[in-house]
Amino acid sequence: xxxxxxxxxASNNDDFTPPTVWRVEHQSSATQGEADFTVICEDNSGxxxxxxxxxEEGNTWQSRDLEYNSSQDRWxxxxxxxxxxxxxxxxxxxxxxxxxVTSNKGLxxxxxxxxxxxxxxxxxx
Length: 125
Fold this sequence. Notes:
mainly beta; 9 strands; about 0% helix
């Protein structure tokens, strides 16, 4: 199933410039299954909404609204109960109804792979 929200601009609106996304970051904890996400974006008409769409297994997508942190001038959210590798992209809507999507140039943003390098042990022959 899919859910959509359609944004309309007023008929006298002459702003067709989408918002600018300056930075998308996340910090994850491998042991606790949690991650913090931040987005820095701007638009002359103001930002109405920032949404993150994410998936953990690649076939079921969920969305999460980010909250504006005025003291840091950025949008933020926290996810918990993550079970592994996750992939996400960001959508930003300005007050004129323009939408921009940032997806790491179509590759999607991903959590870093956690690799453990074990020592190599050889048996004497």
